[in-house]
Protein backbone atom coordinates (compact mmCIF):
# COMPACT_ATOMS: atom_id res chain seq x y z
CA UNK A 1 0.00 0.00 0.00
CA UNK A 2 1.28 3.46 -0.91
CA UNK A 3 0.63 6.51 1.23
CA UNK A 4 0.95 10.26 0.75
CA UNK A 5 1.04 12.96 3.43
CA UNK A 6 -2.01 15.22 3.58
CA UNK A 7 -2.32 17.74 6.42
CA UNK A 8 0.66 16.02 8.05
CA UNK A 9 -1.30 12.75 8.14
CA UNK A 10 -0.66 9.65 6.00
CA UNK A 11 -3.45 8.83 3.54
CA UNK A 12 -3.63 5.85 1.23
CA UNK A 13 -2.97 6.38 -2.49
CA UNK A 14 -4.58 3.95 -4.96
CA UNK A 15 -3.78 3.52 -8.62
CA UNK A 16 -4.75 0.57 -10.83
CA UNK A 17 -1.72 1.28 -13.00
CA UNK A 18 1.81 0.13 -12.18
CA UNK A 19 2.99 3.76 -12.15
CA UNK A 20 5.15 4.93 -9.26
CA UNK A 21 3.18 7.08 -6.81
CA UNK A 22 3.89 10.81 -6.53
CA UNK A 23 6.07 11.93 -3.65
CA UNK A 24 3.96 14.92 -2.64
CA UNK A 25 0.43 16.25 -2.97
CA UNK A 26 -0.94 19.80 -3.16
CA UNK A 27 -4.59 20.86 -2.84
CA UNK A 28 -6.47 23.28 -5.08
CA UNK A 29 -9.99 24.32 -6.03
CA UNK A 30 -8.78 26.54 -8.87
CA UNK A 31 -5.74 25.59 -10.93
CA UNK A 32 -4.79 25.32 -14.60
CA UNK A 33 -3.69 22.25 -16.52
CA UNK A 34 -0.30 23.89 -17.05
CA UNK A 35 0.16 24.39 -13.32
CA UNK A 36 -0.69 20.72 -12.70
CA UNK A 37 1.95 19.67 -15.21
CA UNK A 38 4.52 21.99 -13.68
CA UNK A 39 3.90 20.46 -10.26
CA UNK A 40 4.07 16.98 -11.79
CA UNK A 41 7.64 17.67 -12.95
CA UNK A 42 8.52 17.88 -9.25
CA UNK A 43 6.63 14.60 -8.61
CA UNK A 44 3.80 16.51 -6.91
CA UNK A 45 0.20 15.51 -7.57
CA UNK A 46 -2.75 17.90 -7.31
CA UNK A 47 -5.75 17.01 -5.17
CA UNK A 48 -8.86 18.63 -6.64
CA UNK A 49 -11.08 20.40 -4.11
CA UNK A 50 -13.41 22.23 -6.48
CA UNK A 51 -16.65 21.49 -8.32
CA UNK A 52 -16.80 17.94 -9.74
CA UNK A 53 -17.84 19.00 -13.25
CA UNK A 54 -15.20 21.72 -13.34
CA UNK A 55 -12.74 18.99 -12.38
CA UNK A 56 -13.84 17.00 -15.42
CA UNK A 57 -13.24 20.05 -17.61
CA UNK A 58 -9.80 20.49 -16.07
CA UNK A 59 -9.04 16.85 -16.75
CA UNK A 60 -10.06 17.27 -20.40
CA UNK A 61 -7.74 20.26 -20.71
CA UNK A 62 -4.95 18.24 -19.12
CA UNK A 63 -5.42 15.44 -21.67
CA UNK A 64 -5.19 17.88 -24.56
CA UNK A 65 -1.92 19.25 -23.24
CA UNK A 66 -0.20 15.93 -22.71
CA UNK A 67 -1.19 14.33 -26.01
CA UNK A 68 1.64 15.38 -28.26
CA UNK A 69 2.60 13.83 -31.62
CA UNK A 70 5.41 11.31 -31.26
CA UNK A 71 8.67 11.58 -33.16
CA UNK A 72 8.96 9.69 -36.46
CA UNK A 73 10.11 6.08 -36.20
CA UNK A 74 11.85 3.95 -38.79
CA UNK A 75 10.33 0.50 -38.23
CA UNK A 76 6.92 -0.85 -37.18
CA UNK A 77 8.41 -2.10 -33.90
CA UNK A 78 9.83 1.35 -33.14
CA UNK A 79 6.45 2.93 -33.89
CA UNK A 80 4.79 0.50 -31.46
CA UNK A 81 7.31 0.98 -28.65
CA UNK A 82 7.28 4.78 -28.99
CA UNK A 83 3.49 4.71 -28.96
CA UNK A 84 3.47 2.60 -25.78
CA UNK A 85 6.05 4.87 -24.14
CA UNK A 86 4.02 7.95 -25.04
CA UNK A 87 0.87 6.32 -23.65
CA UNK A 88 2.67 5.52 -20.40
CA UNK A 89 4.06 9.03 -19.99
CA UNK A 90 0.76 10.67 -20.83
CA UNK A 91 -1.12 8.40 -18.44
CA UNK A 92 1.20 9.26 -15.57
CA UNK A 93 0.78 13.01 -16.16
CA UNK A 94 -3.01 12.69 -16.44
CA UNK A 95 -3.09 10.67 -13.21
CA UNK A 96 -1.43 13.53 -11.33
CA UNK A 97 -4.91 15.05 -10.85
CA UNK A 98 -6.40 13.33 -7.81
CA UNK A 99 -9.70 13.18 -5.95
CA UNK A 100 -10.29 12.15 -2.33
CA UNK A 101 -12.67 9.26 -1.76
CA UNK A 102 -14.18 9.31 1.71
CA UNK A 103 -15.44 6.48 3.92
CA UNK A 104 -18.01 4.22 2.19
CA UNK A 105 -16.90 5.52 -1.21
CA UNK A 106 -18.20 9.06 -0.92
CA UNK A 107 -16.86 12.06 -2.86
CA UNK A 108 -17.38 15.33 -1.01
CA UNK A 109 -17.25 17.76 -3.94
CA UNK A 110 -19.99 20.06 -5.27
CA UNK A 111 -22.13 18.27 -7.91
CA UNK A 112 -20.29 14.97 -7.40
CA UNK A 113 -22.32 11.89 -8.39
CA UNK A 114 -22.98 8.91 -6.17
CA UNK A 115 -20.00 6.66 -6.93
CA UNK A 116 -20.53 4.02 -4.24
CA UNK A 117 -21.89 1.33 -6.57
CA UNK A 118 -19.15 1.91 -9.14
CA UNK A 119 -16.37 1.65 -6.55
CA UNK A 120 -17.94 -1.39 -4.91
CA UNK A 121 -17.80 -2.95 -8.37
CA UNK A 122 -14.04 -2.36 -8.44
CA UNK A 123 -12.96 -3.01 -4.85
CA UNK A 124 -15.61 -5.43 -3.58
CA UNK A 125 -15.89 -4.04 -0.04
CA UNK A 126 -16.49 -0.50 1.20
CA UNK A 127 -13.55 1.47 2.59
CA UNK A 128 -13.34 2.43 6.25
CA UNK A 129 -10.72 5.12 5.66
CA UNK A 130 -10.35 7.82 3.02
CA UNK A 131 -7.94 7.38 0.11
CA UNK A 132 -6.67 9.34 -2.89
CA UNK A 133 -7.38 8.21 -6.43
CA UNK A 134 -6.56 9.64 -9.88
CA UNK A 135 -9.60 11.58 -11.08
CA UNK A 136 -9.33 9.95 -14.49
CA UNK A 137 -9.51 6.48 -12.97
CA UNK A 138 -12.59 7.42 -10.97
CA UNK A 139 -14.31 8.42 -14.22
CA UNK A 140 -13.12 5.15 -15.76
CA UNK A 141 -14.64 3.20 -12.87
CA UNK A 142 -17.95 5.01 -13.34
CA UNK A 143 -17.97 4.25 -17.07
CA UNK A 144 -16.98 0.62 -16.53
CA UNK A 145 -19.80 0.21 -14.01
CA UNK A 146 -22.34 1.39 -16.58
CA UNK A 147 -20.90 -1.04 -19.15
CA UNK A 148 -21.05 -3.79 -16.53
CA UNK A 149 -24.74 -3.17 -15.93
CA UNK A 150 -25.54 -2.84 -19.64
CA UNK A 151 -23.60 -5.89 -20.83
CA UNK A 152 -22.16 -6.78 -24.23
CA UNK A 153 -24.43 -8.71 -26.65
CA UNK A 154 -22.63 -11.73 -28.09
CA UNK A 155 -23.77 -13.00 -31.50
CA UNK A 156 -22.16 -16.40 -30.84
CA UNK A 157 -24.53 -16.70 -27.85
CA UNK A 158 -27.58 -15.76 -29.87
CA UNK A 159 -27.41 -12.16 -28.70
CA UNK A 160 -27.32 -12.99 -24.99
CA UNK A 161 -25.14 -10.59 -23.01
CA UNK A 162 -21.86 -10.96 -21.16
CA UNK A 163 -21.45 -8.51 -18.28
CA UNK A 164 -17.90 -7.40 -17.51
CA UNK A 165 -16.71 -5.20 -14.62
CA UNK A 166 -13.61 -3.03 -14.47
CA UNK A 167 -10.40 -5.06 -14.48
CA UNK A 168 -11.67 -7.91 -16.67
CA UNK A 169 -11.12 -8.05 -20.43
CA UNK A 170 -14.35 -7.32 -22.29
CA UNK A 171 -15.30 -9.43 -25.36
CA UNK A 172 -16.11 -6.42 -27.51
CA UNK A 173 -14.27 -8.03 -30.44
CA UNK A 174 -16.95 -10.51 -31.41
CA UNK A 175 -15.32 -11.82 -34.56
CA UNK A 176 -13.01 -14.29 -32.81
CA UNK A 177 -15.93 -15.55 -30.73
CA UNK A 178 -17.75 -16.44 -33.93
CA UNK A 179 -14.76 -18.60 -34.94
CA UNK A 180 -15.21 -20.71 -31.80
CA UNK A 181 -18.95 -20.96 -32.40
CA UNK A 182 -18.54 -22.08 -36.03
CA UNK A 183 -15.51 -24.44 -36.08
CA UNK A 184 -16.25 -28.17 -35.98
CA UNK A 185 -15.94 -29.92 -32.62
CA UNK A 186 -13.93 -33.13 -32.29
CA UNK A 187 -16.04 -36.30 -32.31
CA UNK A 188 -17.44 -37.31 -28.93
CA UNK A 189 -16.48 -33.99 -27.35
CA UNK A 190 -17.79 -34.23 -23.80
CA UNK A 191 -15.24 -32.24 -21.80
CA UNK A 192 -13.40 -28.95 -22.30
CA UNK A 193 -10.99 -26.68 -20.43
CA UNK A 194 -11.03 -22.91 -20.96
CA UNK A 195 -7.64 -21.55 -19.88
CA UNK A 196 -7.59 -17.87 -18.88
CA UNK A 197 -11.36 -17.66 -19.11
CA UNK A 198 -11.72 -13.93 -18.30
CA UNK A 199 -15.42 -13.17 -18.62
CA UNK A 200 -16.28 -16.84 -19.22
CA UNK A 201 -17.53 -16.16 -22.73
CA UNK A 202 -15.62 -18.97 -24.49
CA UNK A 203 -16.75 -21.54 -21.92
CA UNK A 204 -20.33 -20.34 -22.43
CA UNK A 205 -20.07 -20.74 -26.21
CA UNK A 206 -18.79 -24.31 -25.84
CA UNK A 207 -21.58 -25.10 -23.39
CA UNK A 208 -24.19 -23.75 -25.79
CA UNK A 209 -22.65 -26.01 -28.45
CA UNK A 210 -23.41 -29.01 -26.26
CA UNK A 211 -20.15 -29.72 -24.43
CA UNK A 212 -21.41 -31.27 -21.20
CA UNK A 213 -18.53 -30.69 -18.77
CA UNK A 214 -16.34 -27.60 -18.88
CA UNK A 215 -13.76 -26.31 -16.41
CA UNK A 216 -12.73 -22.68 -16.83
CA UNK A 217 -9.66 -21.32 -15.02
CA UNK A 218 -8.20 -17.88 -14.37
CA UNK A 219 -5.71 -16.51 -11.83
CA UNK A 220 -7.46 -13.10 -11.64
CA UNK A 221 -10.02 -13.11 -8.79
CA UNK A 222 -12.05 -10.39 -10.52
CA UNK A 223 -12.25 -12.54 -13.64
CA UNK A 224 -13.27 -15.63 -11.66
CA UNK A 225 -16.13 -13.76 -9.98
CA UNK A 226 -17.15 -12.21 -13.30
CA UNK A 227 -17.14 -15.57 -15.10
CA UNK A 228 -19.17 -17.26 -12.35
CA UNK A 229 -21.78 -14.51 -12.47
CA UNK A 230 -22.05 -14.71 -16.26
CA UNK A 231 -22.32 -18.51 -16.21
CA UNK A 232 -25.09 -18.30 -13.61
CA UNK A 233 -26.89 -15.58 -15.54
CA UNK A 234 -26.82 -17.73 -18.69
CA UNK A 235 -28.10 -20.79 -16.82
CA UNK A 236 -24.99 -22.88 -17.48
CA UNK A 237 -23.87 -23.75 -13.94
CA UNK A 238 -24.57 -27.46 -14.50
CA UNK A 239 -22.09 -27.53 -17.38
CA UNK A 240 -19.36 -25.11 -16.30
CA UNK A 241 -17.19 -24.91 -13.20
CA UNK A 242 -14.93 -21.86 -12.75
CA UNK A 243 -11.70 -22.25 -10.74
CA UNK A 244 -9.19 -19.64 -9.58
CA UNK A 245 -5.81 -21.06 -10.57
CA UNK A 246 -3.05 -20.90 -13.17
CA UNK A 247 -3.38 -22.91 -16.34
CA UNK A 248 -4.72 -26.47 -16.24
CA UNK A 249 -7.06 -28.21 -13.79
CA UNK A 250 -6.77 -31.89 -12.91
CA UNK A 251 -7.94 -34.45 -15.42
CA UNK A 252 -8.10 -34.43 -19.21
CA UNK A 253 -10.36 -32.79 -21.78
CA UNK A 254 -11.40 -33.40 -25.38
CA UNK A 255 -10.83 -29.71 -26.15
CA UNK A 256 -8.63 -27.11 -24.48
CA UNK A 257 -9.37 -23.58 -25.62
CA UNK A 258 -7.13 -20.61 -24.89
CA UNK A 259 -7.08 -17.00 -26.04
CA UNK A 260 -3.64 -15.88 -24.77
CA UNK A 261 -2.38 -12.29 -24.94
CA UNK A 262 -1.55 -11.46 -28.53
CA UNK A 263 1.26 -8.93 -28.12
CA UNK A 264 4.70 -9.67 -26.59
CA UNK A 265 5.05 -6.52 -24.51
CA UNK A 266 4.95 -5.52 -20.84
CA UNK A 267 1.51 -4.77 -19.38
CA UNK A 268 1.13 -1.61 -17.28
CA UNK A 269 -2.03 -2.63 -15.39
CA UNK A 270 -3.89 -5.78 -14.40
CA UNK A 271 -6.41 -5.56 -17.23
CA UNK A 272 -3.57 -5.20 -19.77
CA UNK A 273 -2.35 -8.70 -18.92
CA UNK A 274 -5.09 -9.92 -21.26
CA UNK A 275 -3.42 -8.03 -24.12
CA UNK A 276 0.31 -7.97 -23.40
CA UNK A 277 2.59 -10.81 -22.31
CA UNK A 278 6.41 -10.47 -22.53
CA UNK A 279 7.96 -13.11 -24.79
CA UNK A 280 4.58 -14.83 -25.27
CA UNK A 281 5.22 -16.71 -22.02
CA UNK A 282 1.60 -17.85 -21.57
CA UNK A 283 1.42 -19.12 -25.15
CA UNK A 284 4.64 -21.11 -24.71
CA UNK A 285 3.40 -22.50 -21.40
CA UNK A 286 0.17 -23.72 -22.96
CA UNK A 287 1.93 -25.26 -25.96
CA UNK A 288 4.41 -26.99 -23.67
CA UNK A 289 1.92 -28.40 -21.12
CA UNK A 290 -1.43 -28.89 -22.87
CA UNK A 291 -0.78 -32.38 -24.27
CA UNK A 292 -0.65 -33.86 -20.76
CA UNK A 293 -4.20 -32.61 -20.19
CA UNK A 294 -5.78 -33.81 -23.44
CA UNK A 295 -7.73 -37.01 -23.93
CA UNK A 296 -6.80 -39.27 -26.83
CA UNK A 297 -7.38 -37.45 -30.14
CA UNK A 298 -8.10 -34.24 -28.19
CA UNK A 299 -7.42 -30.80 -29.61
CA UNK A 300 -5.88 -27.59 -28.38
CA UNK A 301 -7.71 -24.56 -29.74
CA UNK A 302 -5.60 -21.40 -29.82
CA UNK A 303 -6.99 -17.99 -30.75
CA UNK A 304 -4.20 -15.75 -32.03
CA UNK A 305 -3.99 -12.52 -34.00
CA UNK A 306 -1.16 -11.78 -36.42
CA UNK A 307 -1.05 -8.13 -35.30
CA UNK A 308 2.30 -8.76 -33.59
CA UNK A 309 3.77 -9.70 -36.97
CA UNK A 310 2.55 -6.52 -38.65
CA UNK A 311 4.03 -4.53 -35.75
CA UNK A 312 7.40 -6.22 -36.12
CA UNK A 313 7.13 -7.85 -32.68
CA UNK A 314 7.08 -11.44 -33.96
CA UNK A 315 8.57 -12.95 -37.09
CA UNK A 316 6.20 -14.25 -39.73
CA UNK A 317 5.98 -18.01 -39.39
CA UNK A 318 7.05 -18.05 -35.73
CA UNK A 319 3.75 -19.51 -34.56
CA UNK A 320 3.96 -22.43 -36.98
CA UNK A 321 7.58 -22.97 -35.95
CA UNK A 322 6.62 -23.06 -32.26
CA UNK A 323 3.77 -25.46 -32.98
CA UNK A 324 6.26 -27.83 -34.62
CA UNK A 325 8.87 -27.42 -31.87
CA UNK A 326 6.34 -28.42 -29.21
CA UNK A 327 5.12 -31.34 -31.31
CA UNK A 328 1.80 -30.01 -32.62
CA UNK A 329 0.28 -30.00 -36.08
CA UNK A 330 -2.65 -27.94 -37.36
CA UNK A 331 -5.69 -30.20 -37.82
CA UNK A 332 -7.99 -27.34 -38.83
CA UNK A 333 -8.02 -23.57 -38.78
CA UNK A 334 -10.19 -20.61 -39.62
CA UNK A 335 -9.64 -16.88 -39.62
CA UNK A 336 -11.45 -13.57 -39.72
CA UNK A 337 -10.72 -9.86 -39.99
CA UNK A 338 -11.42 -7.35 -37.21
CA UNK A 339 -14.57 -5.27 -37.25
CA UNK A 340 -13.92 -3.11 -34.16
CA UNK A 341 -13.62 0.68 -34.39
CA UNK A 342 -9.84 0.88 -34.16
CA UNK A 343 -9.45 -1.30 -37.25
CA UNK A 344 -10.66 1.55 -39.46
CA UNK A 345 -9.50 4.56 -37.44
CA UNK A 346 -6.86 6.35 -39.50
CA UNK A 347 -5.96 8.52 -36.49
CA UNK A 348 -4.73 5.48 -34.59
CA UNK A 349 -0.89 5.48 -34.62
CA UNK A 350 -1.02 1.72 -35.21
CA UNK A 351 -3.57 1.89 -38.05
CA UNK A 352 -0.98 0.70 -40.59
CA UNK A 353 -0.84 -2.66 -38.77
CA UNK A 354 -4.46 -2.96 -37.66
CA UNK A 355 -5.67 -2.65 -41.25
CA UNK A 356 -3.73 -5.83 -42.15
CA UNK A 357 -4.66 -7.85 -39.08
CA UNK A 358 -6.25 -11.29 -39.20
CA UNK A 359 -7.35 -13.37 -36.22
CA UNK A 360 -6.93 -17.13 -36.40
CA UNK A 361 -8.36 -20.12 -34.59
CA UNK A 362 -5.85 -22.97 -34.74
CA UNK A 363 -7.10 -26.46 -33.89
CA UNK A 364 -3.94 -28.30 -32.91
CA UNK A 365 -3.36 -32.01 -32.44
CA UNK A 366 -0.30 -33.61 -30.93
CA UNK A 367 2.01 -35.39 -33.36
CA UNK A 368 1.91 -39.18 -32.77
CA UNK A 369 -0.64 -38.45 -30.07
CA UNK A 370 -0.73 -40.75 -27.08
CA UNK A 371 -3.36 -40.48 -24.38
CA UNK A 372 -2.17 -38.77 -21.20
UniProtKB/TrEMBL annotation:
UniProt-listed PROSITE patterns: N6_MTASE (PS00092)
GO biological process: methylation
Key words of the record: Methyltransferase, S-adenosyl-L-methionine, Transferase
Annotated GO MF terms: nucleic acid binding; protein-glutamine N-methyltransferase activity
The protein's Enzyme Commission number: 2.1.1.-
Source taxon at top rank: Bacteria
Enzyme class: transferase
Gene3D superfamilies reported for this sequence: Vaccinia Virus protein VP39 (3.40.50.150)
Residue intervals of the Methyltransferase small domain: 186-306
The protein, known as: Release factor glutamine methyltransferase
Organism: Alysiella crassa
Lineage, highest ranks first: Bacteria, Pseudomonadati, Pseudomonadota, Betaproteobacteria, Neisseriales
Amino acid sequence: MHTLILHQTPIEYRNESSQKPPQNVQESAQISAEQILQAAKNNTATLWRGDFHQGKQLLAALKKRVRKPSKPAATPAEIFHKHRLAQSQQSREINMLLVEVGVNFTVDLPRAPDVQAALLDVYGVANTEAFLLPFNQLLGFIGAHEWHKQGVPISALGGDKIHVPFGVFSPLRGEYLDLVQQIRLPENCHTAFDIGTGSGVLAAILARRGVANIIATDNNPRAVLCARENIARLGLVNQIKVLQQDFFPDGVANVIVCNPPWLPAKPTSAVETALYDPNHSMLHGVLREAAAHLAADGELWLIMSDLAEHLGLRDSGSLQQWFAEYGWHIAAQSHTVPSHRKATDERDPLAFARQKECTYLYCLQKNSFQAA
